[in-house]
Write a structure and sequence with these properties.
Blueprint lengths: L7 H6 L3 E13 L12 E5 L2 E7 H7 L5 E8 L10 H11 L5 E4 L4 E6 L3 H14 L3 H4 L1
Antiparallel strand pairs: 1-3, 1-4, 2-3, 4-6, 5-6
């Protein structure tokens, strides 16, 4: 297992964005719904229900109401969960490209869900940010 990185300059320079295959959708299901066989990428428990992020074909098969259709980008840098600035840096880069993002942090990597139609432009913006290797001052 690698040591998590907390230095912002190093995080940006080594973030290695990878576009995962397929479309993913956000949907909301009632609390208590058994999602164990759904190939769930992420869940968030809220008062209103359980938000699930699942492959588009799973949502279609189950007849789920699609709230957002997204591409899933994983940053393949082992970011420290207490690192400061990485989310702000990539969100700013995507914002400058007029691309919204929804972020889920895992224990090892950050996962970014961007509008499906903006996936190529999002990857270009993230790769440009990584290649610039800029610090927080110029990334924001």
């Amino acid at each position: 297992m690698t040591t998590p990185i907390s230095n912002l300059q190093q995080l940006i320079a080594s973030m290695q964005p990878v576009l995962n295959e397929g479309a993913y959708v956000y949907a909301c299901v009632p609390h208590g719904t058994d999602v164990s066989g759904w190939e769930v990428a992420a869940t968030v428990r809220e008062h209103e229900g359980l938000t699930v992020v699942v492959p588009q074909e799973v949502a279609q098969r189950l007849g789920l109401e699609v709230l957002f259709c997204a591409a899933w980008i994983t940053l393949h840098v082992h970011s420290d969960l207490q690192a400061v600035g990485l989310t702000a840096a990539f969100a700013a880069a995507l914002g400058r490209a007029n691309i919204s993002c929804n972020v889920v942090a895992g224990a090892f990597h950050d996962h970014i869900f961007v509008p499906w139609d903006a996936r190529v432009a999002a990857m270009a913006a993230l790769v440009a940010l990584q290649q610039a290797g800029c610090g927080m001052e110029s990334a924001l």
